[in-house]
Design a protein that fits this description.
The protein is built from 9 helices and 2 strands; from the N terminus they run αααααβααβαα. It has 265 residues and is mainly alpha-helical. A two-stranded antiparallel sheet has the order 1-2.
Length: 265
């Protein structure tokens, strides 16, 4: 069958299709936050490292919402977001933690840092494979941004309070292992995905946001670490509560087939 002019132009137009700028700018900015955090840790500026990761968390939470609100979701953007997350919430926390305190533990130090980094990679891979959600209200395991916030929040708090990394190396060892292993668990963590920005909310919700912002402003290291510590424990609480109530504890299918495993990310 001869090729018509339309049939030739169609694949060419697909090849020429550009990349949406706005959501990918947020993703690149989040990636820069992770890169900046690593560079600051290399210069022993760990408070700046923590701030860089927390900025990356904020930007990462915005890129997906911006893409959905502007109807600019693409497969390229999803893959770009996953790669940026691996740097900002996987490699960066592991390297910063090792540089801050774990290197004093020798092989145990890089063991803990690698376990965290590997768990972050496994969680992101599972997120990409599990495309069918069972319950959008929950995440399967601790989200990688929250795990990074828990790890860097601890470093930021200890640095701000003047505690020595040497005195906290085993506590750091426990925190990073807890964060990493919880990422690859099946525990249900509330996802906040049922909160819609474009829908009206009760007045009390806006007041609550104002109170949270005011609390964070009082002493950011303490408040942010406390918030993410509570969130990091919440999955275990929800698990125990669901067991007590007789509700199924898993929010995903029990299928183990690859790559057709069904479930929540």
């Amino acid at each position: 069958m001869p090729h018509t002019e339309d049939s030739i132009e169609e694949p060419q137009s697909r090849l020429r299709k550009g990349i949406y700028v706005l959501p990918n700018l947020f993703t690149l900015a989040a990636l820069f936050g992770g890169f900046y955090a690593i560079v600051m840790a290399m210069n022993n500026q760990f408070e700046a490292s923590a701030i860089g990761v927390f900025c990356a968390i904020v930007l990462d939470s915005l890129d997906g919402r911006v893409a959905r609100m502007t109807n600019t979701q693409t497969e390229f953007g999803a893959q770009m977001d996953s790669l940026a997350d691996m740097v900002s919430f996987g490699a960066a926390p592991a390297l910063i933690t090792y540089e801050w305190a774990l290197k004093d533990l020798g092989r145990w130090g890089w063991f803990a840092a690698f376990i965290y980094c590997a768990c972050a990679a496994l969680r992101l891979a599972r997120f990409n494979v599990n495309t069918t959600s069972v319950d959008k209200r929950f995440f399967q395991g601790l989200p990688s941004p929250a795990a990074a916030a828990l790890v860097l929040g601890f470093i930021w708090l200890m640095t701000d309070m003047g505690f020595s990394p040497v005195d906290n190396r085993w506590v750091m060892f426990a925190v990073i292992l807890y964060s990493g292993l919880t990422m690859v668990s099946n525990l249900p963590f509330y996802s906040f995905k049922d909160f819609q920005m474009r829908k009206s909310v009760p007045f009390a919700v806006i007041v609550s946001f104002a109170l949270i912002i005011a609390l964070i402003n009082i002493h950011p290291p303490t408040v942010l670490f406390s918030l993410f510590l509570v969130y990091g424990i919440s999955g275990y609480v929800v698990y125990v509560w669901r067991r007590y109530k007789g509700i199924p504890t898993s929010v995903i299918s029990t299928s183990t087939e690859e790559p057709d495993e069904k479930g929540l990310h």
